[in-house]
Amino acid sequence: MPRTEFIATAFHVPERVVTNDDLAQIMDTSDEWITQRSGIKTRHWVSDGETGASLATAAARKALAKAGMRPAELDCIVYCTCTPDHFEPGNGVFLERELGLSDIPAIDVRNQCSGFIYGLSVADAWIRTGQYRRVLLVGAEVHSRGLDRTTRGRDTTVLFGDGAGVAILGPTDDPERGVLSTHLFADGRHAEKLWVDAPGLAHDPFISEQLIREGKHHAVMEGREVFKYASILMPQSVAAALEANHVTPGDVKLLVPHQANLRIIEMVQKAVGLRDDQVYTNIDRYGNTTAASIPIALDEALCEGRLARGDLLLLTAFGSGFTWASAAVRW
Ligand code: UT7
Fold it and tell me: Domain 178-330 - what CATH class?
């Protein structure tokens, strides 16, 4: 069976940069609080006319150009998002249409911050079994329009940003390289600790003025609980990836963790026993872009020359659900 390799990566974020001081103009917060608690300085928010699909399309076109491929050479789209442009259909078909395609499958993955690794696991299985050869894996989010931009939502709103990151994946015959393993976890007992309640068909009617008045359409989070579980379960998922591949922290060239909070990343680094140069962070500039955070960080790390052929790359994520995941890749 062939392994799955990353053929190209790319990302696209909206031009509009929102600073912590900008947020302090619209809610009771401060640059000092946001920086100290999360490490975030700026994030990107969409402007009129931009959508999740438009960000994903821009990122996909950049990746296709890097790979020297035409959209028609793609066999499948795996689109990971928890902020779809519409209730249905999923965003994969909108991206497919924007790319001028009409004859390949598109699947949407709804696994929030772990979405990209869940999507990678799906794509990897299809590529290894030969079902699809060239898979466009997308993580894209537009959080800003769904956030409570008042003081009521400040604990959540200051953390999130918009953006899209993609990878084009395909088979490699080199037995030494490619995706070595993926490890997926979920525990629905914590589903309401970070969630968007409505619109939702558990409600009748599924959307109402009352639901909106109560702010049920905004993401809400028990921040301390999420923080606690993230800092325990992300290191556990990294340990699973190390153990499955019989490698040690010293063998890791780079860990690209989901960018939710700099303090969480630092705790993961410490728990796993990695040096600063083994962990990539860019949360200061993008905030938490959920399914897009890993592919954005991975593309930036590659552009900075942080990974070379043969290096061991680890990915790890944790988020709403709770879901969490890790992956090991021989670059
Ligand atoms: O993608 C995966 C999902 N997300 C995460 O992994 C995020 C996990 N959680 C966190 O990152 C942190 O819990 C937060 C950054 C959300 C909050 O940090 P914290 O140190 O846990 O603060 P806290 O929620 O305990 O709040 C401390 C204080 C509170 O005031 P009192 O009750 O102590 O008077 C909050 O009301 O900070 C207040 N506060 C704020 N103050 C200024 C909450 N949000 C803000 C804000 N600006 N934006």
Answer: alpha beta
Q: Which atom in ligand 1 lies closest to the alpha carbon of residue 230?
A: 6
* Mean pLDDT, the chain cut into blocks of 10 residues (331 residues total): 96 98 98 98 98 98 98 98 97 98 98 98 98 98 97 97 98 94 98 97 97 96 97 98 98 98 98 98 98 98 97 98 98 97
Question: Quick one: DSSP state of residue 328?
Answer: E
Residue 114 near residue 319, CB atoms below 8 Å: yes
Atom number of ligand 1 nearest to Cα 156: 16
Nearest CA among 134, 135, 140 for reference residue 94:
140
| Residue 82 a catalytic site member | no
CATH superfamily of 3-172: Thiolase/Chalcone synthase (3.40.47.10)
Can 44 be counted among the known catalytic residues? no
Tokens representing residue 309 in the block:
């052929």
Question: Measured from the CB, is residue 312 less than 6 Å from ligand 1?
Answer: no
Peptide bond connecting 257 to the previous residue in cis, omega within 30 degrees of 0: no
Going from the Cα of 182 to the center of ligand 1, the distance in angstroms, rounded, reads 31
Which has the closest alpha carbon to 263: 25, 34, 8, 27? Answer: 34
Establish whether 113 is a catalytic residue: yes
Sheet bearing 106-109, strands edge to edge: 3-12, 163-172, 135-141, 76-80, 106-109
112 lines ligand 1 (CB under 6 A): no
